[in-house]
């Protein structure tokens, strides 16, 4: 498999949000605005790449019966690391995402890629897979966040274009999240997945 | 392929993984401890500067959890650390009050409100600006829905109520400070019935 294809696969064919439907909890919960979606995506990307690298490196020596606990420990370590670093150096972003960072541990994408890819492939390939899937997740979350922000708050990336008026608030809340996700999925499958 | 799943192997691998993970985290914790504290202190300092008029000196009353700001000899204002329970968890704030009892400004230290809704209490200009110069002896301190003069954030009445309540708590402490100084009541207990915690919430799972 070419290196380029490993990355584009994660973006389109194996897009975690629109195709694999993995990690729905953080997807629906954090995409109230484009910035939040983007930051959550990048945080997940960070954990995904590191955990893919670590897990592909240790996979050969991990006995089958304990591989899930070992993977969870590895993932949880990276998530906590990320949490500490964000708290120390980007307190503003940590404030908005703080609640959802620990939940990356239980994000099925991370464990899913460890199970389905990293423990069968080499370190380099796993890193690229992590980047691809992570970018796929980041893009999906940013687009979803952007759509919800435009409809729900009348702004894009924090820039308000309807001046003081309220948007359609339902889109900021959970029902709007499901609606947007559903329609984006339809569009994604119609235009991108076939190619 | 994967190593054999016998007891020795399993214990060894899992044990080593945990050992390595905890060593890494311990190191990271030690490294980030100071920056994290510095960030928290910087945030409080910034918030205090934001909620008070120009001052040259600041003293902290740990019992009442408030700062007294002085410019030369004159007291220019007080900044109260206060909190209320919002929609998603504790809403910790700092409220600046000038000696005449008028609110100078308010700032949020930490909150766990819904992004896009209650979290607007830190960004909604209309909501935040109304606190500047809010005079509780002229205006009624409760949200319009409850018959007061505070315009709530759209679709976030609970957050707005909590915000208002936190301000009320601060004003209560202020009243006690004032009377304590003016009437010299020795049995004054600052923040008597107020539950103030310094803990920021660590484990709010809401999924």
Largest sheet of chain B: 5 strands, antiparallel
Q: Count of DSSP E strands of chain B?
A: 5
Hey, roughly how much beta strand do the residues of chain A contain?
under 5%
Strand order of the largest sheet of chain A: 1-2
Give the % helix of chain B. 25-40%
Parts with pLDDT < 50 across at least 5 consecutive residues of chain B: 182-207
**Principal-axes shape call of chain A:** globular
User: What is the structural class of chain B?
Assistant: alpha+beta
Q: Would you kindly provide a written description of the structure presented here, covering whatever features stand out?
A:
The complex is a heterodimer of chains A (195) and B (207). Helix content of chain A is 69%, strand content 2%. With 195 residues, chain A is mainly α. Chain A has a two-stranded antiparallel sheet. The radius of gyration of chain A is 17 Å and the shape is globular. The C terminus of chain B is likely disordered. Chain B is 37% helix and 19% strand. Chain B is elongated. Chain B is built from three helices and five strands; from the N terminus they run αβββββαα. In chain B, a hairpin with a 2-residue loop joins strand 2 and strand 3. Chain B has a five-stranded antiparallel sheet. At the A-B interface, helix 2, helix 4, helix 5 and helix 7 of A face helix 1 of B.
